[in-house]
Amino acid sequence: MDEELLSIGQFARLGRLSVKQLRHYDELGLLRPAYVDAGTGYRYYRAGQAREALSIGLLRSLDVPLPVVGRVLSGETGALESVRVSLEAELARRRRTLASLERVLAEGLPAPEVGLVREPGWRAAFVGERAAGLEDVGRATSAAVARLLEGVRGPVRLVGLFPVDVGEVVQVRVGLILEGDAKPGGGAEVGVLPGGMFARATHVGPYDQISLTVHAVLAWCAERGLAVSGPLREVYVSDPACTPVEELVTDLLVPVREEGERMGEERAFGVGPSRVEIVYERLGDRAAPPVLLIMGAGGQLISWPDGLCAALVGHGLQVIRFDGRDCGRSTRFDGAGEPDFGAALAGDLSSLAYTLDDLVADTVGLLDVLGLDGVHLVGASLGGMIAQAVAIGHPGRVRSLTSIMSTAGDRMTPPPRPGVPPPVGGPPPTTRELYVERMVAGAVTGGVAADVEAVRALAERVWDRGWSLAGMLRQAAAVIGSGDRREGLGGVAVPALVIHGAADAVADPAGGRATAQAIAGAEFLLVDGMGHGFPPGVWPLVSARIAALVERAERGQEEGRTSPLS
C-alpha cells in the first residue's frame, strides 16, 4: 500500500481527532479520506490533511458551528473574519454576564421601578422561531426579527414574546406593530397583540442582561400575589443599529391576572387539522364533569359572564371557555378579508375563509389537546350550531348537549321579529370608545333590562383582548351552506336541553323549539327576561338547568358502566 497513506487510526492520532469524529466529518463532506478501500470500506488519509484536521479541531474548540467550519475551510471570503467577530461579541457578552454576576452577589437583584399598567390591544404581524434552550433565545430572536423586517423601511415598533417557563425548547415570537404602511416579510401571520393588565418595568442596557430585570419583575408580582397570565413581552424602544449597547432601552411587560379572575388563560397550540392556536380558560375542579362553553360569532371567552361561569362551578362542574378562531386572542384569519354575504347566500362560497366544519374540527381538536375524551357541550348562538354539529359528527365526544339561543337551520340571522326595535346602525366602530358606546347602545335597545356599567366594562375588556369586526363576519359566514341539521339531530342519543330567550330579537324562539323537536327526548326552556344574551337575572335558572342535565347524563353513563349487560 502507498506509504503516504495513513490508516484512519494513525491519522486520528496525528490530527488530534477521534475515529468517530473523522467518520462524521467524512459524512458531512468536511474532511474526505484520500482513499477508501472498495472492498473493506477502510478510510485512508495523507499526512498533509492534518492541517485541515487540526483546523477543524481548533474551530470546534471555539464552539464554531460545523456549517461555518466548512465555509472557513473552503476559503470563503470573510468566513474567518465572521468567526472572529462572533467570538469577540461572545467574549464581550460573557464579560458583561460576569460583571452582572458580581453585582448580584454583592448587591442582590436589581430593583427597577415596577408598576401596574393597562395596555390596549394592537394589530401586529408575528413571526416565530424555535430556540434550543435559553442560551439559544438570542439567536432565535434575531432570526425572527430579520425575517419580520425583510423589505421593511423606516422606523418600526417591535415586541418580543417569550414564555415565562423555559424548557428544552423555547418558542420565540416577535411581533411588528402594524402602523401606517408597515408591511412585514418572512411569511408573517397577522393577528392581535392582546391588551390587558401588565406589570411593567424598564430595562436599560444589553439585551442579554434583560433576564435580571425580568426576575425582578416576577419577584415583584409574586410578593403581591399577582399571577402571571401569559408570555413575557419585551418592547424594544431603542434602535440597536444606532444606540450603544449599554444605553438600549427595553420596556418589559408581564401580563397579570385581573382582579377577580380565578384562573389564568392558557394557549393550546396546533389545534385540529388547521393547526390553529386557541386561548382557553379552565374554571373549577379539574376532576369535576367538564363543561365546554362555545360562544357565538365574535364572542370571546369572556362573553360567557363570569357570574354564570361561577354559578356552574358552584354546581360542582368544571367550566372550559375559549376564544374561537378569528376572535380574541386565538389565531386570526385577517389575510382572508371579509366574506361576500350576498354571493355566499346565492351559493358562491368562494369568499368564505372557512366553514362550520372547520369550527367543529377546532372544537374537537381542543378536546384532543386538553386530553378530554368526552365533555358536556354548551353552545350559544353560532356556538349552539357548532355544538349541534359536534354532537352529530362526533357522538363519542359528547356526554350531553345544551343549545342556547340558536337554530338547527342554515341561517345565522333570521328576519327580525315584528315589533322589535331595529338594531343600532351606523358605520363599524374604529376606536375603543366608539365600540364601547355601540355595545352600550345595543344593550339598552335590546328590549331586556341591562346593567349599563357591566356592559361597558365587558365591552372594554373585549376590545382590549382583540375585537375584530372582520373576524366576527367570517365566523358568521361560516355557517352559510352548512345545511339543515334537523335530520342529523334526530340521531343524537345523549341528554339534550334547548334554551331560548323569550325576548330574543336575533334568533326567533321558533328556531329553538324546532331544535328541541328534532332531538329525541330534548327539553325546551323558554326564559322570560332573556334576549340574545345572558342578563344576570337568568344566571341561577340557566346554570341550574345545565347542571341538572349534566347530572342526569353522568348518572346515565355511570349506570351504563355498571349494568351487567354493558
Describe the structure.
The chain folds into three domains: 5-73, Multidrug-efflux Transporter Regulator, Chain: A, Domain 2 (Orthogonal Bundle); 115-255, Regulatory factor, effector binding domain (Multidrug-efflux Transporter 1 Regulator Bmrr, Chain A, Alpha-Beta Barrel); 266-562, Alpha/Beta hydrolase fold, catalytic domain (Rossmann fold). It contains 17 helices and 19 strands. With 566 residues, it is α+β, with helices and mostly antiparallel strands. Residues 259-263 and 410-424 have low confidence and may be disordered. The chain is 37% helix and 20% strand. The longest helix is centred in the first third of the chain and has 29 residues, at 79-107. It is elongated, with a radius of gyration of 30 Å. It has helices spanning 8-15, 19-28, 50-61, 66-73, 79-107, 137-148, 210-223, 306-314, 341-345, 356-370, 382-393, 432-444, 452-466, 469-477, 486-489, 509-518, 539-562; strands at residues 5-7, 35-36, 43-46, 115-119, 122-131, 158-162, 170-177, 189-193, 196-204, 232-236, 249-255, 266-271, 276-283, 290-294, 318-322, 375-380, 398-404, 496-501, 523-527.
